[in-house]
Specification:
With 255 residues, the protein is α+β, with helices and mostly antiparallel strands. It contains seven helices and four strands.
């Protein structure tokens, strides 16, 4: 009865050796799979980090949270892989590990897709905000142009007395068959306008009477002409407002 026991013992030892060999191979495969998952995840994280440089603070916080969750998931998978090493003979356990690995990969990819989607939203929002800022800047630039133009005109009016003469002449030229008009001018322009009365009569032959009135509400260099059929507004401020309106309309048409 001695030899059969030895044979059985040797067979049992060989079975254990084969089982141990299978365990070692399987363990190595599991470790290689885990390393592959880590490498792929690291590669995806590097790509996301390039885009993450353009994220706002809120998006960065969301990204960090996702990374932490991904790290926790990785540690969980590694722990499951190590635990499965001792139960590799259990086929159901092996299948569970395989399913867990695939689910882990799929979940990791889904996380990356969510982060990429968030990045796209952030970038689109940035583009929209940039366009809004540009539109607002155009309005500010037009206001600045109006302000500077007004400054330049006021300086020119203060240095050139002929400005009021040219403005009044241009406004009177728009009158048709009027016999009497009233011209409102700034007090500082009254004397020069009054002194050139004769020139204004020659512009419209039907004119019989021109009354000049000092009005502090009128800008220097401008005037308002009152007729029986309506008024002609030739104030500098009104002309600047018209230019401002036309510029804004033009810019709005380009948007």
């Amino acid at each position: 009865m001695g030899p059969p026991v030895v044979v059985e013992a040797m067979a049992d030892e060989e079975s254990k050796a084969r089982t141990f060999s299978l365990l070692s191979v399987r363990q190595k495969q599991l470790e290689e799979q885990v390393l592959l998952i880590e490498k792929k995840k690291a590669s995806l994280e590097e790509e996301v980090l390039v885009l993450a440089g353009q994220m706002d603070k809120k998006a960065r916080e969301k990204y960090d949270e996702r990374v932490r969750e991904g790290e926790a998931k990785k540690e969980e998978l590694i722990g499951e892989g190590r635990a499965g090493r001792d139960a590799v003979l259990d086929e159901g356990r092996k299948e569970g590990c395989e399913i867990g690995r695939k689910e882990g990969q799929a979940e990791g990819l889904n996380e990356i897709r969510l982060i990429s989607s968030k990045l796209e939203e952030v970038l689109n929002s940035a583009v929209t905000e940039r366009q809004k800022i540009l539109e607002e800047a155009k309005g500010d630039i037009i206001s600045l142009v109006k302000f500077i133009t007004g400054k330049v005109i006021k300086k020119q009016v203060s240095e050139d007395e002929e400005v009021i003469v040219r403005v009044v002449s241009g406004a009177i030229a728009k009158i048709l068959e009027e016999k009497k008009i009233t011209v409102r001018v700034h007090p500082d322009d009254y004397n020069i306008a009054e002194s050139r009365r004769g020139e204004f009569f020659s512009i419209v032959n039907s004119l019989d009477q021109i009354d000049f009135i000092m009005d502090k509400r009128i800008d220097r260099g401008g005037c308002i002409i009152e007729t029986a059929f309506g008024n002609i507004d030739a104030r500098i401020s009104s002309q600047l407002d018209f230019i401002d309106m036309e510029l804004r309309r033009s810019v709005k048409g380009d948007l």
